[in-house]
Design goal:
Length: about 375
Amino acid sequence: MKKILLILSTVAAISLSPQASAKETISLTGITPAAGSEITSFDFTLTFDLSAVEAAEGPGSYGIGWQSNHTVPPKSSERSVTIYRGDAVGGTPIGYACTSNYNPTVSGWTPSDKVEISLPGIAPEPGVTYTVKITNYFYAYEAGSGSTAKSDRLNFYLNPVTYSFVGSSEVAARPLLVSSSPASGAAVKSLDVLALTFNRAVTYAAGHALTVSDSKGVTATSSEVTLSADGMTASVSFGGTPMVKGETYTVSIPAGAFVSAADATMSSDALTLTFEGDKYPTFGVASTTPSNGETALTRTVTVNFDLPAGTRISADGATPPAGAQAYLYSGSVPPDKLLSICAATGGTADGNVLTWECPVSPEPETT
């Protein structure tokens, strides 16, 4: 009997669906005032072309938005609009814009093909070159669509755009802030004296106190304002106001605080400068067990710290931080002899207490 081998071959039917088409592109068409022109202020308008999105999506309220990545000091991944004194390579940054994400989920977003950039109260110096460098991601959005973009990414992070301008020889009649020291945006441990340099000689209008504020409110008020011999620079004293890491501080200068020395009818606008705190908060010891000066024979010491509100010795409270060591000496201060290094063995959930245990026991009748 012959055997017949039947081989069945199946052919898979593959349905190819067309690939989803890419979103429409947008473009930056220019800046106003035009690149290369003389400027009397740092007020610029970027204009974008959203016509491809409007044609593809149909009628709607479309506008420009962006993604940012701004830190102080800026990192290599900086995505913002930066204004430099000089060029964008060796120049000095004097201000930033578009530093936070902006789309229909952000309060105040409005559909527009324009982006307004401004550094209020700061004046360009005559004859000085300034550069605007753009490194954001830009997208087109539709009102009510949330953070879902209607366009492809316009990537200026990989391909930055720069525009150069020259400070106008026409000096504004009213006092305008040219620079400050420390510079706005700097990381500062404490603010002792803030130097404000204007485009013309000024006088200080008494009663217009400058203030420093953090997220909780006003932390300091100016105690004294003195002027340089030429009247161009005002030195404002804040008495070494500490600026703690993790906080952003704002110096507020009220309108009319500085008046033109040549024309008392011309005064400065309201101004704000921001600084990033760079000082770790200080703290003390509330109590110890055994207490300081007590006669005791023990290998463990527990310390209750007096901490600023909202802080802990360690992130999770009960776990001692790495490297939290104590040192056991014999003798008086300064100590005569190191007996042992004591390791932190425990803490409390609220994070303000730590206990150390020493590997050796102190000798009786020994300090």
